[in-house]
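Retry 2 of 3 after timeout on previous attempt. Resubmitting structure tokens to design endpoint.
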């Protein structure tokens, strides 16, 4: 599903050069649940941004679900993201003035789905995360755990085969974190490919395989 070969990412600021990734190669199979771990500055976020088509590598090859994406334009990458990848972030990234319903609806609007399909899909997702009765609430009216469940529902709006989760339990209490991991586990069992960044060994234990980064390279 995901194949990276010799991926490098170099940032230049004036005379300063930072090698965020230095020849990363890895394969993630369809339906795998992978955790990416490593200390701050190891390249985890940069790697996730490239996997998620939010950034492009300086060099190397990236094949996503059979398509070469390393050299695509910004608009082409956006189209790939909308079709194939759902994102879950530590800080939820919900639109603060939009309702729960509207936050979930947004990716489907970008995808051009009609009103009937949007209504049916949003209702399904809200029931799946147990928050249908909160459909008219805004993020400020929800707990952290509820916001992350809405973020998960939004990530699944277009039924993407891949889910990228960047510290999905980082801002949650232990109970809410376990609830989110239970949902992710069910999604994986249903066939979704999940790539998760975490600093937490207990959270990483939910995954099948752990990729450890150090100084921009795969250590283990």
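Retry 2 succeeded. Sequence:
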């Amino acid at each position: 599903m995901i194949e990276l070969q010799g991926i490098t990412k170099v940032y230049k600021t004036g005379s300063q050069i930072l090698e965020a990734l230095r020849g990363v190669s890895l394969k993630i199979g369809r339906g795998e649940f992978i955790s990416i771990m490593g200390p701050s500055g190891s390249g985890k976020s940069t790697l996730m941004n490239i996997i998620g088509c939010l950034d492009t590598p300086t060099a190397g090859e990236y094949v996503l679900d059979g398509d070469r994406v390393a050299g695509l334009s910004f608009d082409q990458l956006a189209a790939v993201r909308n079709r194939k990848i759902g994102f879950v972030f530590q800080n939820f990234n919900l639109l603060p003035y939009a309702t729960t319903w509207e936050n979930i609806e947004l990716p489907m609007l970008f995808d051009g789905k009609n009103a009937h399909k949007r209504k049916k899909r949003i209702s399904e997702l809200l029931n799946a995360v147990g928050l249908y009765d909160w459909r008219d609430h805004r993020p400020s009216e929800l707990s952290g755990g509820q916001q992350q469940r809405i973020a998960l529902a939004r990530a699944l709006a277009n039924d993407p085969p891949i889910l990228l989760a960047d510290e999905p339990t980082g801002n949650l209490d232990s109970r809410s974190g376990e609830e989110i991991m239970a949902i992710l586990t069910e999604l994986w069992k249903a066939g979704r490919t999940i790539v998760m960044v975490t600093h937490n060994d207990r959270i990483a234990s939910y995954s099948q395989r752990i990729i450890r980064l150090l100084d921009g390279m795969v250590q283990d």
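Attempt log closed. Strands lie at 2-13, 16-28, 33-37, 59-64, 67-68, 85-89, 162-166, 193-197, 209-214, 217-218.
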